[in-house]
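User: quick one, sequence for these tokens?
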């Protein structure tokens, strides 16, 4: 069966954010950082700079939490843990025990096969986000949702910065009232914040939705539900696009502005858009499509949104006037392509 593959990349200006914190050292909480290798035009050589980043795990957690909410709203099956945002996904045997599900022993392939089918049917988040059940015969499902770290774009990496912010919790009425805990009246702490032009890329394998993959390859939900699951999967990308992810949002809500985005729906072979490391990424993506179609015999539809100067959008790209319109266009095209592959008649 031909694949229906959604690919998305975007650029966003995010100022004063604490969306992904790492370890704390005393009263200092550090932002996650990673080494980024890039070509420096001034020195004409590759250099490495440590920059603020937001992990793929952080982004994937947010995506799956929104996916659970959208799936429930659409009347689809979601397990209780995923509804609560606890993405254990039956990855602990105690969960199987509590739900009276079988634990496949060594060599019990048929039981493992039945368990895989059950989990795919009963939870949209586990179907799309993948899972690993650590029984004696492991039951594994590779995620249909792909995403990596959000990192500063190469063309703006020099302005990516981190800086600690001083804060104090102060309760004058408690000062001096506790010899055991004299610090209760006042606590000093630092939170490291970051600002950068970030870029991130994500992809969705829509054909694999509702289909087992470990012990046999077959659909375990009907075409109507497969289409509904695909619709909520694409719709949930919207929340990543507009910055609804990450930690410490109640007091460190970042200044987030979506600068631009490019997305594709490919039918045939999977096509990934160019990451947004430069403002040419929409044009570069569009330039690859014709050659990709010849190479693989696939069809690709392109969509883009831009609110920043210098982003050229070629004529073969459908332009959206807002992030909401972009996701709607992406969803409509995805479902149309999936219907063709599934041979669903209107």
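Assistant:
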């Amino acid at each position: 069966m031909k694949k229906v593959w959604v690919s998305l990349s975007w650029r966003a200006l995010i100022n004063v954010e604490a969306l992904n914190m790492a370890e704390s050292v005393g009263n200092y909480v550090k932002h996650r950082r990673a080494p980024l290798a890039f070509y420096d035009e001034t020195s004409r050589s590759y250099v490495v700079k440590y920059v603020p980043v937001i992990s793929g795990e952080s982004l994937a957690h947010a995506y799956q939490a929104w996916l659970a909410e959208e799936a429930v709203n659409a009347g689809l099956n979601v397990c209780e843990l995923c509804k609560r945002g606890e993405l254990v996904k039956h990855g602990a045997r105690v969960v199987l025990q509590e739900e009276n599900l079988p634990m496949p022993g060594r060599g019990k392939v048929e039981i493992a096969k039945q368990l895989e089918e059950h989990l795919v049917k009963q939870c949209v988040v586990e179907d799309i986000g993948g899972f690993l059940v650590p029984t004696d015969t492991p039951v594994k499902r590779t995620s249909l949702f792909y995403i990596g770290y959000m990192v500063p774009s190469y063309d703006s990496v020099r302005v990516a910065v981190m800086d600690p912010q001083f804060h104090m919790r102060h309760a004058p009425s408690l000062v001096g009232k506790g010899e055991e805990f004299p610090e209760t009246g006042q606590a000093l702490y630092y939170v490291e914040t970051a600002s950068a032009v970030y870029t991130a890329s994500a992809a969705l394998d829509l054909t694999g939705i509702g289909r087992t993959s470990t012990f046999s390859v077959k659909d375990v939900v009907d075409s109507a539900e497969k289409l509904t699951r695909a619709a909520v999967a694409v719709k949930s990308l919207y929340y990543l696009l507009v910055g609804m992810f990450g930690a410490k949002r109640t007091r460190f809500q970042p200044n987030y502005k979506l600068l631009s985005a490019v997305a594709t729906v490919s039918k045939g072979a999977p096509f990934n858009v160019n990451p947004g490391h430069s403002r040419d990424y929409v044009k570069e993506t569009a330039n690859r499509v014709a050659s990709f179609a010849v190479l693989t015999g696939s069809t690709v539809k392109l969509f883009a949104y831009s609110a920043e100067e210098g982003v050229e959008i070629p004529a073969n790209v459908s332009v959206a006037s807002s992030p909401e319109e972009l996701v709607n266009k992406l969803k409509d095209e995805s479902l149309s392509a999936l219907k063709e592959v599934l041979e669903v008649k209107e």
